[in-house]
């Protein structure tokens, strides 16, 4: 694409890719458990979420949490503690299952029956760039109407698909200046 930045940050500009900011905002809207998995309370909350129903147990197995029922009961009762590798698997499975469970709700809220959601683009930070090299990049807002591909890629945790969907479905609607918003400080929206 002609507007893709090849050497971002060469002169001191700071920011993150737009699709990463969107993923962070979607994660915030998903409402993950904030207590870390290493704390007993966080571990129990995640295990209860992953073992509450047959559907949740199946989804957890598909997401990589493959332990026996006895082991799960021992973890829940506090007789044993999971290893670091199992804690990582529990966290990964929890995030995958939670994203899958909230994606349909988020998609409906973001699309709002075709009306879309107002998105704020906060430009990249150029405070460390020398004055002659700074460019004028303003705060922008845009109403994004099609979130299907973005939310689907976020649910699958597919970074390349998320980048492609965000660039082709949302950012390109900014007009000829869309390349200036490939890197941003933050992207804000609510659902």
Number of helices: 7
Order of helices and strands: EHHHHHEEHHE
Task: Decide which structural class fits the backbone.
Answer: alpha+beta
What's the end-to-end separation, in Å? 31 Å
Please provide the count of β strands.
4
Helicity range: 40-55%
- Give the biggest sheet: 4 strands, antiparallel
Layout of secondary structure:
Layout: E1 16-17, H1 18-30, H2 40-51, H3 54-62, H4 69-77, H5 84-111, E2 117-123, E3 140-144, H6 148-156, H7 159-169, E4 183-188
Antiparallel strand pairs: 1-4, 2-3, 2-4
Helix pairs in contact: 1-5, 1-7, 2-5, 3-5, 5-6, 6-7
Structure description:
The protein is of the alpha+beta class and 191 residues long. The protein has helices spanning 18-30, 40-51, 54-62, 69-77, 84-111, 148-156, 159-169; strands spanning 16-17, 117-123, 140-144, 183-188. The chain is elongated and about 65 Å long. The mean pLDDT is 90.
Which features would summarize this protein structure in a list?
191 residues, alpha+beta, 4-stranded antiparallel sheet, 7 helices, 4 strands
Summarize the structure.
The chain is of the alpha+beta class and 191 residues long. The chain is built from seven helices and four strands, in the order E-H-H-H-H-H-E-E-H-H-E. It is elongated and about 65 Å long.
